[in-house]
Amino acid sequence: MDNTNTKPKMPDNTELEQKMQVYLQERNGENLTMVLSGLRFAHLFVPAVFPEGTDLSFMKNVEKGTRFQLPKGVQPVPSILKNSKGEQYLPLYTRKEKIPKDQKYHTILEVDFRGSYLVALKEESKIEGLAINPFDENILLKNALLEKLKAQDDKMIAEKRVINISPEQYLGLLRKGLEFKTIPQMFFSDPQKFTEDFCEGKEDFIKKLYIDAFPQKPGIPYEENDFEFMALNIREDLLLIRVDLPEKGIDQGLCKRIYLAWNETAKKPYYFTIERTSKKEENAMGRIDESGKRIDCGVAPIEGAEIQRVLDIIDEERCEAN
């Protein structure tokens, strides 16, 4: 009986077995690597028993030699082999026919190779390694080798863990990092110099920040006229910079505008965002503090009242400080 998934065909390990025969004829590193390569994505078989006390009534309706799904909570235990030295190995068979007929077991598990060596490498495991076809080719893979194989597999899996995103999503990620992290960090690190450079460079200055944030290919998708810069000396001690950002590629959560305020007397910088929301006629207003945290300022007022709202927040904070 096989406790396996419901694939229509049994695993065909003929090619793997051929590689094993080549290795047995000449046991060298190259041929072992070939065997390990064949094992990597192989499905193999291991006999197993059910723990004492397991209700096996579900097996009455299982036809011999067919696959079936184990009931929830039933956990068979793979049979472990012990050699003359007392070393224990998890046996894996390339086909069911290679399991000795006199071996006692309740079922046969279909397992993948990676899952098998992860069992062998568990800290609490007393298994020395894996035995491939132990009563035939008997290729032993000890834990030291399996550790190296695991490291290689982990690296390969990590490198393949790629998330496919659209060009629009990629554009959004770059902009979000720039508008909510990079620019605020640059501003807060030296607010006086940053505002002076900004006022001198204007649209060229902000465009260069975007150029630097985008990879050389495909490059920045914006022109200088996609940015609008305005600096206002609202008060003797307060410089306010308004920057309108490109509408192209802007999505929910990205900035339509940013406001930078610098109080030279108090040596206090402020950074505000006007963000697009899912509602066409409604924007959100936020503030990035000097720790990089975004503070929600609620629904943004109409465009003509944004500057007054920025000033109100600055004044409210100044009153609370006093």
How much is the radius of gyration in Å? 33 Å
Largest sheet: 6 strands, antiparallel
**N-end to C-end Cα span:** 80 Å
The total of helices stands at 8
Helix content: 25-40%
Description:
By secondary structure, the protein is an alpha+beta fold. It folds into 2 domains: 2-160, no CATH class; 167-321, no CATH class. It is built from 8 helices and 15 strands. The longest helix is centred in the middle third of the chain and has 23 residues, at 167-189. The chain is elongated. The model is unreliable at 1-8 (pLDDT under 50).
List descriptors.
elongated; 34% helix; 322 residues; 6-stranded antiparallel β-sheet; 25% strand; disordered N terminus; alpha+beta; 5-stranded mixed β-sheet; 15 strands; 8 helices
Q: Topology, pairings included?
A:
Blueprint: E1 2-3, H1 14-25, H2 29-40, E2 43-49, E3 67-68, E4 77-78, E5 81-82, E6 88-92, E7 107-112, H3 113-120, E8 129-132, E9 139-142, H4 143-160, H5 167-189, H6 191-201, H7 203-213, E10 228-235, E11 238-244, E12 255-263, E13 268-276, E14 283-288, E15 294-299, H8 306-321
Parallel strand pairs: 1-3, 1-7, 6-8
Antiparallel strand pairs: 2-4, 2-7, 5-6, 8-9, 10-11, 11-12, 12-13, 13-14, 14-15
Helix pairs in contact: 1-2, 5-6, 6-7
